[in-house]
Amino acid sequence: MEYKSTGDLSQELMEQSNIDTYLRENRRYFSNQSVTELLGQLYQRKRLSKAALARQSGMSEVYLHQVFAGRRKPSRDRLLCLCIGLDATLEQTQCLLRLSTYAQLYPKNRRDAIISHGILHGTGLDTINDKLFSENEKTLF
Asked: Residues 13, 52: one domain?
């Protein structure tokens, strides 16, 4: 199957005068995966209990179960905490942010750069929060 980047799709969208034509021609490129499904896939490869994941992510077990069941939509910061707890890659984290319709981590933003660096280097949530605090940035929780 041919691959179209987000940039390619954006360009086509801007050039296309008829939205129905764009939707029909590009339907196979639209994302069908939900945030809950992707979180579930990341969790399955972790081999830890949801209680341990909740601790690593700085959230309650009840809240975590609600997120995994699709009954709660975590805020951007809570989703980032969950990505860090799941040891998600930066690419997986950016994908989850996009699927949740949140802004992706932006390296020109000081706070996002600290968080991105932590994700890239497998830094724990407490250490990332400590660095954010020491740099006078809002912590993740």
From this structure: no
